Amino acid sequence: FHLGMFEIGKPLGKGKFGRVYLAREREHKFVCALKVLYKSELQQNRAEIQVRREIEIQSNLRHPNVLKLYGHFHDSKRIFLILEFAGQGELYKHLRKAQRFPERKAAQYIAQMACALRYLHRKHVIHRDIKPENILVGIHGEIKISDFGWSVHAPGNRRKTYCGTLDYLPPEMIKPGSSDNSYDEKVDLWALGVLMYEFLVGEAPFEDSPIMTTRRIVNRDMTIPSYVSAEARDLLKKLLVVDPRGRLPLKKVQQHPWVTKHCQ
Ligand SMILES: CC(C)CCNC(=O)Cn1cc(-c2ccc3c(-c4nc5ccccc5[nH]4)n[nH]c3c2)cn1
Prior knowledge:
Elements: E1 6-14, E2 19-25, E3 30-38, H1 39-44, H2 48-59, E4 69-74, E5 78-83, H3 91-98, H4 103-122, E6 125-126, E7 135-137, E8 143-145, E9 152-153, E10 156-157, H5 171-174, E11 182-183, H6 186-201, H7 210-218, H8 230-239, H9 250-255, H10 257-262
Antiparallel strand pairs: 1-2, 2-3, 3-5, 4-5, 6-9, 7-8, 10-11
Helix pairs in contact: 4-6, 6-8
The chain binds the ligand CC(C)CCNC(=O)Cn1cc(-c2ccc3c(-c4nc5ccccc5[nH]4)n[nH]c3c2)cn1.
The ligand CC(C)CCNC(=O)Cn1cc(-c2ccc3c(-c4nc5ccccc5[nH]4)n[nH]c3c2)cn1 binds at residues 12-13, 15, 20, 33, 35, 51, 54-55, 58, 69, 81, 83-86, 89, 136, 146-147.
């Protein structure tokens, strides 16, 4: 590999570290998203290990709803990631533009997320950072989970403090001083519930504040607007359960009436 083999196009956005460009590989005219990470920046943030782990995790994943990492290469200063190009870009931009999604579209997205998460969990990968900002949309409108920056091989334990919005974190990951800081794949079920709420309502159910966080722990009822259908309400209540063991398993999510009614 060397950069010469790629024609670099417009910037596609800024990831956590580095920038992403539309790129086309010269020989086969293969279009991709080329992400450039600076080694110096990774060193400053002590992120090399994490990036190496992300590369390791994402290189072995093959699923239509998971963004592919085709390969990577580096020169003295930079690491280059050859990522799948998602033809319709970032999901959160679609969500902001639409304010909230119709239930049919939300149900199709949740079904695809459940499918992707079942695949990840079978490979003992917990994503841990499911939110609209980490989801892209393919050319046929299908969604693709990207950015495995916080994924771990299950069971994980909370070593580092989490930097980012708390909106999607389940109670077991934020309960202050909880002795066993181990958790498992069920953290992604909570996040799936928060994602579903945000698709239907246009904002997260528990805003990012300590009081709301404690309310989340005691599970004071979040407010679900009246325009949300009874079936959607039912599924939300079965995912946003404080006790991880009480959350609806992904197989049951795919079989839930709200999902089956709108899919296939
Ligand atoms: C360490 C390594 C394994 C991390 C791999 N994961 C990432 O780098 C996460 N990431 C993906 C991207 C990204 C951003 C944008 C796109 C796009 C894309 N398509 C677009 C279409 C229209 C407008 C904007 C678009 N961005 N396709 N693929 C992308 C990939 C940015 N960061």
